[in-house]
Amino acid sequence: MATADSGRPLPLWYTLPEGFRPVDLWADPEERMDAHYTALAELCPDATTGQLVASALGFEAALGRLVEDGLVHFSSFVLRTDDDLLLTGICQISVTDRPAGDPHLYPHSALRAHPDQPDTHKAVVELPSGLAAVVVADQAVTVPGTLFGVEGESTSAVRTATFHLAFPRIPEAVVVSLSTEIFEAEEEFLELATLVAAGISFMAPRPAPVPVSTPVAVSPFG
Question: In Å, how far are 21, 93, 187, 198 from 16, measured between CA atoms?
Fold first, then answer.
């Protein structure tokens, strides 16, 4: 079950495929920054201590703002495609307010609220948990240099697939968003994003049935 920043439980469950590395949003911030620092030091051995510290602080500040805005899950993913490409990216699951009313109408209003832009595709799809609005968009994302301890900023091209689903009994919605810079794996990325969105559930999973052992018949002849 997902938990909001306030600590209140949400009627929201989700499953993720292999290859996802979640960030513990409720861990001690200092421990989380230490882990981020260590992981980045291994990934970028040429980075200076100042750059690593700036990146850890910047990530923690950005994560805090996302949690305040309703983030309940944050993870990175790394998967190898059939064409031997490494598909990497970020997965975010958030909870946001929605207008009261029929939850089946929410996906259509979510699409209308999203501006029509070049390289943007919008649709309403049916998932196991209900109707969902999906928006696939390409955009340029600006990365402040302070995240890496340098001056200036850089720009990255990112493809994002975002699903909007309404909670059935409360005026809130869940937003599932996956993003990647690996444009070459377009089909695999969209399949992955759909798989994650299909793993959203508003009902607690049923416990697995306990197997009943069949008694062994005893021969009267020993």
Answer: 10, 11, 18, 10
